[in-house]
Amino acid sequence: MPNRVEKLSLLSEMIAFAKADKNIKKIEYSFLLGVAKQLEISREDFDYLIEHPINYINLKSHSERIVQFHRLVLLMHIDNDRTRSEVVKLYNYGLRMGLNHESITKVLYLMEGFPDMIVPAEVLIDIFKVQYN
Fold first, then answer.
1. Neighbours of 76 (CB within 10 A)
2. Helix, strand, coil share (%) of the chain residues, nearest 5
3. What's the pLDDT at 67?
4. Among candidates 90, 67, 88, 80, which has minimal Cα distance to 27?
5. Are 97 and 61 in contact (CB under 8 A)?
6. Contact (CB, 8 A) for 118 and 73
7. 82-133 pLDDT, tens digit each
8. Distance (Å, rounded) from C-alpha 38 to C-alpha 20?
9. Residue 31: which residues within 8 A CB-CB, separation 6 or more?
10. Which residues neighbour 111 within 8 Å (Cβ) at sequence distance 6 or greater?
11. 57 burial type by CB count under 10 A (0-12 exposed, 13-18 middle, 19+ buried)
12. Highest-scoring range by mean pLDDT, 31-40, 65-74, 106-115
């Protein structure tokens, strides 16, 4: 489990991803607030991060990086307004986290075939597990 600074970094990264189109939509805010609660981050700290992002800290755990990538995939689809630039940004986030480029590409390709374009967690984990072994 990530420490508090890593959790704040994860959340800050997600906020930045949501702000890619200059503002956070209400549905994105609700989703991010839910993630904050899951990470045991207070609403005050969450709201502070919206205006004051912190630097990115790469997670040591490969499984935590996969979970974070999945959160970003979910965030991208939460507003049903996926753009090419968001897909590129998601791909680049995955690379920066140290995830395998083939796995990232496969997830982005396979999401087209799933309802609401959301790759189920178990499928995503299996994709990364194959590359990790």
1. 24
2. 75, 0, 25
3. 87
4. 80
5. no
6. yes
7. 778 888 988 999 999 999 999 999 988 888 788 777 788 888 888 888 766 5
8. 23
9. 74, 75, 78
10. 73, 77, 117, 118, 119
11. middle
12. 31-40
What's residue 51's pLDDT? 92
Q: pLDDT at position 9, please? A: 92
The sign of the torsion formed by the CA atoms of 33, 37, 43, 49 equals: negative
**Count of domains for the chain:** 1
d(CA 13, CA 9): 6
Here the tokens at position 133 are 């072994």
- Side chain identity, residue 80: N
Q: What residues contact residue 109 under an 8 Å CB cut-off, 6+ apart?
A: none
The token pair that represents 126 in the structure block: 């299996």
Structural domain range at position 70: 4-132
| Total Cβ atoms within 10 A of residue 95 | 12
pLDDT-above-70 percentage for the chain: 95
* Distant-in-sequence, close-in-space partners of 15: CB < 8 Å, separation ≥ 6: 24, 32, 49, 50, 53
What tokens were used for 130?
């194959």
